[in-house]
Specification:
It holds the Pfam family TPR_WDR11. This is cDNA FLJ57220, moderately similar to Bromodomain and WD repeat domain-containing protein 2. This protein has 310 residues and is of the alpha+beta class. Helix content is 46%, strand content 15%. Among the domains are: 95 residues, Thrombin, subunit H (Beta Barrel); 79 residues, Alpha Horseshoe (Serine Threonine Protein Phosphatase 5, Tetratricopeptide repeat). It has a four-stranded antiparallel β-sheet with strand order 1-2-3-4, with no helix packed on it. It has a four-stranded antiparallel β-sheet with strand order 5-6-7-8, with no helix packed on it. Strand 2 and strand 3 form a beta hairpin. The longest helix has 20 residues. The protein is rod-shaped, with a radius of gyration of 33 Å.
Length: 310
């Protein structure tokens, strides 16, 4: 039990500055109630108790995506410049370390090959109390915010999260690279899931690249889906010949579900041949269509009545 009672009064405060989507993760709470946050290309430091703006740091040319107080000195004092160090990063990969009390930049790091090495090494140089996975995911999120998808994928592969890397690549429209990564890093089941998502994307109305989707389905061994897609594209000749080859070599069995599609393909192909004047071929495939081609077969086999001359 406490020897006395403390009454807390909580009041909401609104910070100044209109933020955008890039600034949503650019905030950090420092010691002694100091808050730093990104506002477009500016870094704002305020006192959370009085809501007074202490500094507005201007050096970035692009939107700020991350801010972080230095942790080597746990007692931040507004009168001690040594204790008030702050790092910020923008969407272009530029990192600035600030002397907050003086309001000046101590150093600048522009994104280049060193930055890639720095991010990769952070996984091994993290504090003991953090897990490698959580720390790496935070690095990944930062790289994605900076538009560095390639490097985010490298970090995910380092912790055996290639499946997540493939999803990130697909989210950012890198479908070919996601398929390549899936084939070299994932097991067959996970790889198939990645390729099926690619097929759904290719068959969507916005993309409509079903011809390319057919090649992906063939690589997966989804022969029934290939026949179904060919039929939906009204490629009746290709669909019928593909079904013939699959039945001949046992690529798929004739079940209740497959038989319905097969007879529909044969019937449509027979009608196509009839319209082109290939009666013999139309009769052949109409007979294979079973009930679906019965009416067409009767029409083809019944002789046409000659008009009677008066």
């Amino acid at each position: 039990m406490l020897p006395y009672t403390v009454n807390f009064k909580v009041s909401a405060r609104t910070l100044t500055g209109a933020l955008n989507a890039h600034n949503k993760a650019a905030v950090d709470w420092g010691w002694q109630g100091l808050i730093a946050y990104g506002c477009h290309s500016l870094v704002v430091v305020i006192d959370s108790i009085t809501a007074q703006t202490l500094q507005v740091l201007e050096k970035h040319k692009a939107d700020v995506v991350k801010v972080k107080w230095a942790r080597e000195n746990y007692h931040h004092n507004i009168g001690s410049p040594y204790c008030l160090r702050l790092a910020s990063a923008d969407v272009n990969g530029k990192i600035i370390v600030w002397d907050v009390a003086a309001g000046v930049a101590q150093c600048e790091i522009q994104e280049h090959a060193y930055f890639q090495k720095f991010q990769l090494e952070r996984v091994n140089l993290q504090e003991v109390k953090r897990s490698t996975y959580d720390h790496t995911r935070k690095c990944t999120d930062q790289l994605l915010l900076l538009g560095q998808t390639d490097r985010a994928v490298q970090l995910l592969c380092l912790i055996d999260k290639a499946a997540d890397a493939c999803r990130y690549l697909q989210t950012y429209g890198e479908w070919n690279r996601a398929a390549w990564l899936a084939k070299v890093r994932l097991n067959p089941e996970e790889c198939a899931d990645v390729l099926r998502r690619w097929v759904d994307h290719l068959c969507s109305p916005q993309v409509n690249q079903k011809s390319k989707a057919l090649l992906v389905l063939l690589s997966l061994g989804c022969f029934f889906s290939v026949a179904e897609t060919l039929h939906s594209m009204r490629y009746f000749d290709r669909a019928a010949l593909f079904v013939e080859a699959c039945l001949k070599y046992g690529a798929f069995e004739v079940t209740e579900d497959t038989e319905k599609l097969i007879t529909a393909i044969y019937a449509d192909y027979a009608r196509s041949l009839k319209n082109l004047g290939f009666k013999q071929g139309a009769v052949l495939f109409a007979s294979k269509a079973g009930a679906a081609g019965k009416d067409l077969l009767n029409e083809l086999e019944s002789p046409k009545e000659e008009p009677i001359e008066e």
